[in-house]
Specification:
Helices cover about 65% and strands about 0% of the residues.
């Protein structure tokens, strides 16, 4: 095993196996449901021995993400090891032109990534769509539904943290993953709020992601793994932080 000890991924060992389903599928299957040609997880001894009890091989799952984060030649030069999650996340942020401080805590950078997608999505919504989204998302004390006003409201939620931040994270991540793969997060299956809001975001976020997907195709196929994986990791981290 070539897993690099990574404090930003260590929390995965505390997540139930079912919560890791989305991450494992992202690493092993493409948007069409076909096994990725470049993945090595499903042929590993750990996967064969423990699947679907992902909790027992969380480090091998983390290793797979680290390997996707580096290119094949570079991984060889690293003696078969990939790159740390922070490097993967900031690389995705750079590609998507996210404004962030590289010295911030990892969850803060993840929030910046989420806000970038949300801001771009809100910009592509009509005023009526923004009003409905604000209502369903439970934004309090907002009297203007301009993109700027709504962005400030969601930024305040992320700064405050707590369960509301977790809900907003699920809304964004579920919308992203469903748009990419056609299936939502298993984490969000029983959350009616997430379902309603994700439906409202479907059109606008689809428009945003279509342009992002073009950038990813230019940047390289590994981003088709690392980009959605960072969103899933962000959702898992928020759940872990909330102790849910």
């Amino acid at each position: 095993m070539s897993y690099r000890k990574d404090r930003d991924l260590e929390f995965l060992k505390e997540m139930p196996s079912k919560d890791l389903d989305d991450l494992v599928r992202c690493l092993t299957h493409d948007e069409d449901g076909d096994t990725r040609m470049t993945e090595t997880l499903t042929v590993s001894e750990e996967y064969k021995a423990h699947y679907p009890d992902h909790h027992k091989y969380w480090d091998r799952i983390s290793e797979e993400l680290q390997l996707f984060g580096g290119n094949s030649l570079a991984n060889l030069l690293r003696f078969g090891k990939g790159v740390p999650y922070r490097e993967i996340l900031t690389d995705v942020c750079d590609k998507l032109k996210v404004n962030y401080n590289s010295q911030s805590k990892i969850e803060v950078i993840e929030n910046c990534l989420l806000m970038k997608i949300l801001e771009d999505t809100i910009d592509n919504m009509t005023e009526q769509e923004r009003k409905e989204f604000a209502k369903q998302a439970g934004l309090k004390g907002i009297h203007s539904f301009t993109p700027a006003a709504m962005t400030l409201a969601f930024q305040a939620i992320f700064r405050a943290g707590g369960f509301k931040a977790y809900q907003v994270t699920l809304i964004i991540v579920n919308s992203v993953i469903k748009t990419i793969t056609g299936r939502g997060l298993s984490l969000a299956l029983n959350a009616s709020l997430v379902k309603v809001c994700s439906k409202l975001l479907a059109g606008p976020i689809g428009y945003v992601l279509s342009s992002i997907w073009i950038l990813i195709d230019i940047a390289g196929p590994a981003y088709r793994v690392t980009m959605p994986a960072t969103f899933i990791i962000a959702a898992l981290r928020q759940k872990h932080l909330q102790g849910i």
